[in-house]
């Protein structure tokens, strides 16, 4: 009569069996270790990319809208932006849109900045005094551009913190002269570090009065006059953002005499964040899927090794059945062996993956991170894979005829 084998006894036998084949067990677990580590690392990196983008967007300023020339179609086709967003548009928005608090028109150009024998390529931004408040920038040393600087088109400049280090090292930059094109500019201020936005390091920018930019650097457009790169708008508060967006769109459509497609786009920080979140979310999902494939490959490895183990342990299975072990006991033992391999491999892979995410966050600018839910889900998934891929070998072992198995003794 078949005697019932306790789960504890089965577990002890499974552990002994795995210990007796340490190298094989380690190689079997390797696939799960790599799969688990891949999932956690790739998801952590994807989450880090999402965090980095969110942090950069938060640097754009609070309650801010951005008006850029060109519509979505021109951006998709890579067509050069039209020059129909002009200074008078910015002035009209300030005067006629009640939900707007401040307006900061801007002209951008890439130029070589020189100080003595040193030269660097930098973004030159022609701005107005409102830029500081609208974009939530701060001054570290000196002062910012004033209304008098703007009105008189003075050759003064405020530089970013990184550019200050590149040009002057530890020397005092205030009062020094730097050259942009053939013009000399006096440095009146240094910005607090702000960081990068979409790959553009804002700490290497040079800020000069808008009128100076037009008169000395960019010039006027013969058709449109003072063409702007874009306009930054600060709404009265967070609740006014949608209202301001609607009012600005209607005003510019009237000013530009638009009857069909807009020749401009109004974007909020939230719009940009949603776009970036969708992109990075899709990237994270794709990376998780790639890691998941590694887990499945690890599961197939477990199944292959367990099938080989069944073939090698035919005599053992036959002997146990002859001594009274039931098919269910054999089935449970092989499933437990698969579970032990997959769960242990999952835990080791989790440790490796979490360490990799920490290393990425420590060594690179990417704020990679991984949540407890993802870790628990990954470990559970690796255990499930061991169970699923261990079923076939376990069933094959359980179905062995003890008489046939004992003939090989």
From TrEMBL:
Localization per Swiss-Prot or TrEMBL: Cell membrane
Membrane topology qualifier: Multi-pass membrane protein
Domain ABC3 transporter permease C-terminal: 290-402
Pfam family, one: FtsX
TM region(s), chain numbering: 26-46, 285-310, 331-364, 370-392
Keywords per UniProt: Cell membrane, Membrane, Transmembrane, Transmembrane helix
Domain of life: Bacteria
GO cellular component terms, semicolon-separated: plasma membrane
Family the entry assigns: Belongs to the ABC-4 integral membrane protein family.
Protein name: Possible ABC transporter
Organism: Prochlorococcus marinus (strain MIT 9211)
Lineage: Bacteria, Bacillati, Cyanobacteriota, Cyanophyceae, Synechococcales
Originating gene: salY
